[in-house]
Structures
1.
Amino acid sequence: MDFNVKKLASDAGVFFTRAVQFTEEKLGQAEKTELDAHLENLISRGDCTKNWTEKILRQTEVMLQPNPIDHTGARIEEFIYDKLDKKLPSRTTNTELLGQFMLDAAAEFGPETPYGSTLITVGEYQKRLGGAEREFLHTSATTFLTPLRNFLEGDWRTISKERRLLENRRLDLDICKARLKKAKQAEAKAALLSEEVDKAEHELRVAQTEFDRQAEVTRLLLEGISSTHLNHLRCLQDFAEAQATYHAQCHHYMQDLQRELNKCANSIGAPNTSTAVCPSPVSSAFLTGPASPGAVVSSTSSSRMLTAEQMQLPVTGARKAKVLYDYDAHDSSELSLLADELITVYTVPGMDPDWLIGERGNDKGKVPVTYLELLS
């Protein structure tokens, strides 16, 4: 093994001298060069940013992945795929697993039975909720967690390294100041030659130059925290938007599920309950009453029939609306939406209050109210 013994000894000497200076400063036995107020403020602001970013990142991870064991396993899996430079596969959510278990149970009990058909209905919606959750987790990790983690593991590590180097430069500067002070005191007593004072002054000038240069580097890095705040602000807005979209989707799915379960209950409570089963899990916002006793009609044809009946009713309250989120129609009676587009909406007598009729050119269909901002 090849190493320079003199350099090793020199580094050890520098480390020891800095340790002595640091200890004497703590004990109040040595003078300490104070940083300027602007740099001190930047350092304090940087520490505050780092501490709160860590807390927000950690708590967001806990919120998105409550189980600590699952969270640790997910981080290990993410680390392995990152090292292998491969895309991390999407993880099945617990809600999707619940939905699949319900569907498997329905197959076991018999999909033609009231319990089995209800399991199918609820299971399908659980899988939809799980899919929305999985998309929300992916979006949150990409647009919010990753930028925060990149700051802590990238920019902040660089800042911390330069701050440690600045502290070493400050210790070296104060050591040179102390040496020059001692040299001048010895010169005054005629115990030291003037060249020793000149050497101490030269070392002090070099130390001061290196300290000033490092202070400038550290200041520039810390001033970049303002840009970090702006970046995190955009990430926070993206996170809030993803959260709003997720909850809007969940609200819409649960409203549809409640309508389906009401239809199921009406079917089971009607005469000839031995043959009554729950309808297929599709949106039923246009239903104006319970299904005919003992009758099982396909969801597509039923939706089209009801839509035709609704379209014959008088239109009330036509107005413009701005679409807040993308929405994919679940059947031919609904209208797909794109975020930020403007459409005309109105209602018809007897229509579910959570839905409106939307028009875009020649396209017409049901649209959920929660996805719209009604304009005056």
Note: Residues 138 and 164 are 36 Å apart (CA to CA).
2.
Amino acid sequence: MPRSRRAQRRGPGSARAGSTASEEEEAGSEVLSHCSSASEGTSPAEEAAGSEAADEAGQEEEAEDRLKEHMDNLLDKSAKSRQAALQSLRLAFSSKTLSDFLLERRLTLTDSLEKCLKKGKGEEQALAGTVLTLLCLQMGSGPEGEEAFRSLKPLLISVLTDSTASPSARQSCATALGMCCYIAAADLEDLISCLSCLEGIFSPPSAGEGGSTPTQHGPLHCSALQSWSLLLTICPPSHIKSILDNCWQKLPLLLSSSSVTLRILAGEAIALLFELAQDMEEDLCHHDTEFLCTQLKVLATESNKYRAKTDRRKQRSIFRDILRFIESGEYQEETVRFGLECMYLDSWARQRTYQAFKEVLGSSICYQLQNNELIREIFGLGPPLVLDAAALKASKVSRFEKHLYNSAAFKARTKARSRVRDKRADVL
């Protein structure tokens, strides 16, 4: 009986406790459902943005992990593995901006590239030279880039001047020496030594002694002359005067080379020197400019059948521009468009600089012009533009508009070429 009474007494209280507990659970569930519905109603855009940011961060981490793996493979025992790693690094360095990532690992990467240049052969050395050029381009003209150039400059000169080394390796080192010196050299001594080394490649001693230059020239001579011309654009006026005295008679000898590429590069180098002399108000009357103009006229109107038709056409077009500049000071301005921006090439110095970067970067030149701070500083483009999605969408052109633009450009180009052909026919 006492137990049943206690049970009877406890029954109503326990029922009330159970009912209150169930009410609290229902209220809590309602609050949670309300909060979840509110969050579902207000945050889809935020959730999408957060997921996109997370995806980008994940992709960036994966890309950095792959780059680290490629850097580790530079020390692999297999030559094929090292070459594959160098090719992957070349592609990554040219198509992305990785300055922060590379600055932290520059010493390790520089040591690995030095070993590839020392112990590698042929293709591996050529790839290492290209990757070194892109590394300096990524690090910029600060003390880190200068340190990398200073450490590898003697090795680049050693491979470049080694007649037993692979021609492709020597060509790559000629390009690397010119580009890295242009970007990172801080002392005039480094600039002068690089100029002297490159000049010794494309201008052998026989040319300076009054003899005839070798008629056979290859890509090595072209790369050396390109790098030499690039370094002329940053030479101080005092050194330009000595170059005019020493090289003005050497360059015209290269106009008779069997290589159309070297003939064109020599003509552009002559125009560049002429432009730099004008900027310094240097009088060139004591140089034999009349004989030079005669040579240029021959190349601008050459129609020898033993030369390829495309080579003749390209040579005539460029030498007409060179001759016009030397005779009247007129330069054929070019426009380079990338994204929403454009850049004007209005001098031989600016043209030589753009061509040098374009040859190293290839199809990635437009991306680097938009995003690489060093390149934008060199060409005076200012800081990189920050564009939102709406601006990018508005910048896209429809297919129909592209078709109309191409049609108009084709008509204008045809008219311009017709006028040039008529004038050329009158000359001939």
Note: The chain has 20 helices and two strands.
3.
Amino acid sequence: MELSFVRFCCVLLSFLAGLVAGLEITSTGSTSIEKASGESVKLDCQFTLAPQDSGPLDIEWSLLSSDNRNEDKVVILYSGDRAYENYYDPMKGRVHFNAADPKNGDASIVLTGLRSADSGTYQCKVKKAPGIRSRKMLLIVMVKPTKPRCYIEGLTHEGKDITLKCISQEGTNPLRYNWDRITGSNILPASTFEDPVTGSLNVKNASASASGTYRCTARNRVGTDECTLQLKVAPPPNTAGIIAGSIIGVLLFLLIIAIILFCCCRARNRKKYEKEICNEIREDVPPPKSRVSTARSFTVGSQRSSLGSMSPSNLHEYALKPQYDKIPSSEEFERPPSHAPLPPPSGARMAVPNLSRMGAIPVMIPAQNRDGSIV
């Protein structure tokens, strides 16, 4: 009889526990999930109902705000035996319930085409009066590293410090970089120092043995990518020869400029001098006299000359010269050369007494320059 009483108590306690427990969420999986962008994820939310849960079933998924001043964003709803999957515009077409009919105990949802903005804390809330239960899950959407860019900083000469750089423009932290050499020995030179955070590889006092092909790998928890570069360490250049060549080049350039300036100045001065010569009026040389004025001057001079100053021996030479004792008329000026009076024959010589009887007058003819001026 005592055994029957104990069994009765256990059944009663179980019944009372069921009345108190009611609605329960039974999912026990991880509450933190990391996924790469572009992938899909299932947020699990399984539940059970109690007989006393007789009210309508409501399921609500929301993205909780990290700031208490902002409201939570409802992502998807199930209410009145109907699912509202396009409730949140940023996830429109990318979120849906995992089960065709969530009221059977599966309130899980599936997110597709994950983006970095989808990261956050999601809450699953199941309500069926009088019961209400909720579950929170943290979703971290990580971006895979994009293809990094490899480049060299510094001169690739022997004895210099060379820095190999590697950087990925996109990628969720923590992002790490790793360098290795893929030609020859895969071991990095002993003089190198690697920084996995900044992605730099410093080669101190580089030598020809450091030449080769290097690879940089960028990675985080959701993906990797890499780039390569070729390092060739060359002997140092002939600095003295470069300096001497530069100096000679500069001097030649200056010499050419000086020659050009000299030629330009000389040509300019020459043109200026020629222009001044053309415009200059010479006042020391009088213009040539006309035949009429010359003839008159000769006549007046001849009358003033003394006959006694001339000897009889040279009278015949002056007698043969053209006479200027009268002024030529305009007809004689206009007479063509064919009508000009012919001079006496060269072989004929006349005596001085005959010239005097003929009325000849001794005349002294002054000397003249080429321009016609009297000396």
Note: The helical segments are 2-21, 239-279, 291-304, 315-319, 330-334, 352-357.
4.
Amino acid sequence: MNTIVIYLILYSLPAKLINGGIAGLVGVTCVFPIDLAKTRLQNQQGQAIYTGMRDCLVKTIKSEGFFGVYRGAAVNLTLVTPEKAIKLAANDFFRQFLSQDGKELSLVREMLAGCGAGTCQVVVTSPMEMLKIQLQDAGRLAAHQQKALGQDRPAAATSHSPPGQPYTAGSTAASKRPSAFMIARDLLCTQGVAGLYKGLGATLLRDVPFSIIYFPLFANINKLGQANLDEKASFFHSFISGCIAGSVAAVAVTPLDVLKTRIQTLKKGLGEDTYNGIVDCARKVWIHEGPAAFMKGAGCRALVIAPLFGIAQGMYFIGIGEHIMEYFK
């Protein structure tokens, strides 16, 4: 046990930080606009502003410029490295801890390892998602307010929120968009560290099942490309395995992602529901929008997660981080 912990701290985790950083930088840069569309589609209530992913991206670029589709990307790029590193390192740790004399893990043990990885990663994921969602949804709020008020020109976006929420009082002009620093500062000043972890339960409810599905599915698909247990599958096979497992897991937990996104969104447009926890959110979405609302953004989510995890597994296969650590060993 002690040997595993020492290996994890001195070698495995730093290597995965490097691999996670490279995979995160490449992946987020490529798919972040789709992730923004996913957030805005999931937050739509009542009369829709966007008819789909393409319509959302086109309207965002027209109203906010090309870089509007990358709003919140800096938060993701900063925190995706430790998030991916923790997820991959924790899964490896739990797989080694649950293994018996080098035997293959049973499906139940693989799922337990994935559960442990998903639980560990929310330390970083929850505040990252909290900040990212506010930045991504700001443009939708402005468009919603213009439509609600029947305005034909850009106007100040007045929004409401549950009492006591920071960052939500008053009006914010479209030209004075919030920054991650401002949101984090307001949350810390008004609610302390707990403010950054609003929606932690919903994040756990999404990420733990995702990891329970993803890691065993990836491991078993990846095995199909191995000639024997001592050899790695090819780079292409590992990449495809990560894409398939990531997209399946992403679609499977989309209803939970919708609940998490709604709960973590601090600002609400005129006439939009506010929520008091997971059960209240699920009840209101079901009553006011119907069961189909729980799958909002499922296609976008699959398109985001598939390449992110495919690239992450590809980096893991190449082992750039491991080569760098070997060099400094």
Note: Residues 250 and 302 are 6 Å apart (CA to CA).
